[in-house]
Design brief:
single chain; 85 residues; 68% helix
Length: 85
C-alpha cells in the first residue's frame, strides 16, 4: 500500500526554504511607496465606477495620480543612482 501525502503536507514540507531572502525583502521595501500610491489611485478610481465623478472625486484622482508619479520618479531616480538594480 502506498502512503498518500496530503496537499498541506506537500506545501508546508518546504516552507522553511521558501522564505524571502533579505535582498527580496529590501526590493519589496523599495517598491512599497509605488505600490501604496498605486492602490490609492485604484481606490479613487473604483469609487467613481458606478457614478459620475464629483469635483471631490476628480481632485482625489488627480492627487493620487500625482503621488504615483512622484513615487515612480523617486524610485527611478534612486535606481538610476545605483540604489537598486
Amino acid at each position: 500500500m502506498e502512503d498518500i501525502v496530503t496537499v498541506q503536507d506537500a506545501v508546508t514540507a518546504f516552507a522553511d526554504f521558501m522564505e524571502p531572502t533579505n535582498a527580496e525583502l529590501d526590493a519589496i521595501e523599495r517598491e512599497m511607496p509605488v505600490i501604496l500610491a498605486d492602490v490609492d489611485l485604484l481606490d479613487a478610481q473604483i469609487i467613481t465606477l458606478d457614478r459620475t465623478p464629483s469635483e471631490l472625486d476628480v481632485r482625489r484622482i488627480r492627487r493620487a495620480r500625482r503621488r504615483l508619479l512622484a513615487a515612480l520618479a523617486h524610485q527611478a531616480a534612486t535606481t538610476h543612482r545605483g540604489g537598486a538594480a
